[in-house]
Amino acid sequence: MAQDPSSHRRFNPLTGEWVLVSSGRTNRPWQGRVEDAARVRAPEYDPDCYLCPTNTRASGETNDDYDDTFVFTNDFAALVPESNAAPINDGLIKAEPVGGTCRVICYSPRHDVHLASMPSDQVRSVVDLWAEQMAELSLDYRWVQVFENRGAAMGASNPHPHGQIWAGSELPVEPAKEDLCQRDYMKRRGSHLLLDYLAQEEGDERIVAENSEWVALVPFWAVWPFEVLVIPRRHVRWLPDLSPVQRDRLGDLLTILLRGYDRIFGVPFPYSMGWHGAPAPVGSHGHWQLHAHFYPPLLRSATVRKFMVGYELMAEPQRDITAEEAAERIRAAIASA
After folding, report:
1. What's domain 10-22+42-335's superfamily in CATH?
2. Are 56 and 89 in contact (CB under 8 A)?
């Protein structure tokens, strides 16, 4: 669906929010650049890395001599199982304690790889670990957030390939919006919001990669310049429900997408990625459809980022390139392999 190159707003049915699209700004000459891909290669093992096998972390704990994936409780966790915070309910002054835990997931013992460069069987091991951790932690916590911050631009404090899991007793703000919108859609339409959206997008210009089980696309309502939404083609509530074939094909799709990202500006592409699936108890959340969000900050080059400031903070999100333009650039980067 072609859009007039002028300002307009797009609606996000998954959160009930709007984004301002100022696509006419892209008529100015392109000022970005592609960086030289040549860079210093990281060592396979770094004796100073807190995440490499057998190394001692800042807490004094020693990592296992792992040869696949490795999980440990974050030494500087933002959530702890028992909160001593006192609840407050005094008019407009409210607070509540939150219990939880935070874990670090090392994807590989090698310091010099990342998801896009790992063999498919190792990516599958990461997918399995995400699902296992989610199933385990959901026994004790309402929300389990699997995520990865890649690159210093997204706040990653260590270049070793890793992600995190934060699990908490309460449903956070963003998944609460998605829960409400998906539940309401199911009540009104009797179908799953994201599966209906996926059916509407089939064959459209916003799709960047797909296979028999998964679709990766720049959502019509994307906020971040090269934002991508990854959705399974069939109804899946959460990661533990994925079949062996779906897990294999997810690894294939992630490899294609992330390698494409890295080619856009010729550098390791920074992003925040996170999985959203049904909260616990999962059985009462059949309206949910599993999906992953990829939020990369880069806009015009490897050094020019999108910042949520000014109008975005005070009014609503705004983007300078349309979802369609972003999808075209990602597809071109994927095809350049």
Report:
1. HIT-like (3.30.428.10)
2. no
Instruction: Reduce the DSSP state of residue 328 to 3 states and report it.
Output: helix
**Cα 299 from Cα 159, distance rounded (Å):** 22
Q: Where are the domains of the chain?
A: 10-22+42-335
| 3-state secondary structure at position 18 | strand
Instruction: Tell me which residue of 75, 238, 274, 76 sits closest to 142, measured CA to CA.
Output: 238
> Tens digits of per-residue pLDDT, 188-199?
999 999 999 999
C-alpha closest to that of 211 among 274, 271, 254, 260: 254
What pTM did the predictor assign?
0.93
Catalytic residue among 162, 276, 287, 293: 162
- Look at residues 301, 176, 148, 126 and name the one whose alpha carbon lies nearest to residue 226: 301
State how far the Cα of 44 lies from the Cα of 111, in Å rounded to an integer.
5
At 52-86, the pLDDT tens digits run: 999 999 999 999 999 999 999 999 999 999 888 89
User: Which pLDDT value is given to residue 40?
Assistant: 63
Longest CA pairwise span in the chain (Å): 59
End-to-end CA distance of the chain: 28
How far apart (Å, rounded) are the C-alpha atoms in residues 171 and 144? 9
Segment 215-250, tens digit of pLDDT: 999 999 999 999 999 999 999 999 999 999 999 999
DSSP class per residue in 252-314: HHHHHHHHHHHHHTTSPPPEEEEEE-PPSSGGG-TT---EEEEE--BSSSSS-B----THHHH
Q: Are 66 and 109 in contact (CB under 8 A)?
A: yes
Tokens of 48: 């100073």
78-107 confidence digits (pLDDT tens): 999 988 889 999 999 999 999 999 999 999
3-state secondary structure of 86: coil
Torsion angle of alpha carbons 83, 88, 92, 98, nearest 10°?
20
Tell me if residue 192 is catalytic. no
Degrees, nearest 5: CA angle 98-100-104:
140
